Amino acid sequence: MLGEGDKAPSFKLDSDLGKPVQLKDFRGQILVLYFYPKDNTPGCTREAQAFTAAAKAFAKAGAAVVGVSKDSVKSHAGFREKHGLSFPLLSDPELVLHEAFGTYGEKTMYGKKIMGTIRSTFIIDGKGKIVRVFPNVRVDGHVEAVLDAIKELKASKA
Question: Known catalytic residue: 44?
Fold first, then answer.
């Protein structure tokens, strides 16, 4: 998995907004890029709803939020609509971005080892550098921790 100080891999993926989204679209602002396993599952839904509930706070902190999973654009559009999500969801069916960031691999689920998306979040600065990594995310309290990290980063540069 990529770490703090690494350059974020460039990407261009289809989104539920009907147009591709690229890393360079966020030049000059903070990007919260989070990887999640599957649309419309309990943990993923709670995480997406928490990011949406905090949308104004992220905007005030100068940060954009983008979610990534291997689900299709059509699935993402339904997920966004059903839950009123406020940020783009990127489709990575070939796992290109997952593998570039190191967020796909062996994990334990209900006591079994499986291959899948490792729920992770990356904070990327306006120059494309990863400034914070949250690996193996637990949903509860995660969005608040990400927001706090962004505020700390901004305060340290002030």
Answer: yes
